[in-house]
Amino acid sequence: MLGLTLGSMAEEESTATFFAGGNTEIDGQAKDRAEQAIRKWTTPEAWGDEDPTGEPYFWNFDAVGREIFIRIIKGGGGNRDGLLQVWLRKGGEERFELYKSYRVARFSGRLGPKKAQGDFQAPEGFYYVSRDRMNPKSDFHLSMDIGYPNAYDRHYERTGDFLMIHGNRVSIGCYAMTALSSEQIYTLVDGALKNGQRVVRVHCFPFEMTEDNLEMFDGSEHKEFWRNLKEGWDWFEERGVPPDVNVNEGKYVFSEL
Question: CA dist 162 to 1, 31, 36, 177, Å?
């Protein structure tokens, strides 16, 4: 069994650092749904007598606007086992700290990178969201384009487009979240970008990049690719800050931001 052991969404309960997700009262076709979601997750008064800082949301209004880093882990047991981790950093602090993990409601395909339009694979690698990649009127509630194909993908002539983090639980290559999860993530990314963060880095991995997990896939065709991904994983694990990522001779290379 992989080091990342995950249960089904139906069996999970939210905690202070994990949100299992759920549905929303916001109309997914409303023209102002992004504005409604952002107001909901930035304004305590929007909740009336309800307190979202307690169960089941454990929400921190002060988290909105902090610098953010997103790490996605597909997991090894199927396309309902993934996690999207939101890491935040307060101004003046050196390291990012885990704010909350979200269950990925669905990603399509298997472990391994996306290579071609129509292969239904969810990407693995190093991507980012910028302001122009935010879609407040997505067909999937709210969405953020992670920027596939990146320079690495283009080096290998990989094809595909519009690979998203979005709501509505359905995926043909995207990382699909529940509607409530997508609202929270969208609000945190929006707040960071409004507060001056230029891009939000999104690092996507097949599983936790430990030596034990890699050894389980020693015969995989993706072995060398995953070894390269592990370099970026280890950078963040050791420093608490994501690296600057470039591509040189068909490999990811990492350096200080």
Answer: 33, 21, 24, 16
What φ, ψ does residue 187 adopt, rounded to 5°?
A: -65, -45
Buried b / exposed e along 63-99 (16+ C-beta atoms within 10 A): bbbbbbbbbbbbbbbebbbbbbbbbbbeeeeeebeeb
Q: Is 164 left (phi over 0), alpha (psi -120 to 50) or beta?
A: beta
- Which residue is associated with the tokens 């549905």? 23
Contact (CB, 8 A) for 118 and 108: no
What residues act catalytically?
A: 166, 174
DSSP line for 21-84: ----SS-TT-TTHHHHHHHHHH-GGGGTT--TTSTTT---GGGTTSEEEEEEE--SS-TT--EE
Rounded Cα distance, 197 and 22, in Å: 28
Q: What is the C-alpha radius of gyration for the chain, rounded to an integer number of angstroms? A: 18
- Determine the pLDDT at residue 105: 86
Check if the beta carbon of residue 83 is closer than 8 Å to that of residue 104.
yes
- Cα dihedral 180/184/185/188 (nearest 10): 170
- Tell me if residue 251 falls in helix, strand or coil: strand
Q: Where are the domains of the chain?
A: 15-239
181 contacts 56 by C-beta, under 8 angstroms: no
Neighbour count for residue 56 (Cβ, 10 Å)? 13
Residue 93: closest CA among 70, 66, 132: 66
Please give the average pLDDT of every successive group of 10 residues along the chain, which has 257 residues: 36 91 92 97 96 96 98 75 94 96 87 94 96 93 96 97 87 86 97 98 96 93 97 98 98 96
- Tell me which residue has tokens 């988290």: 63
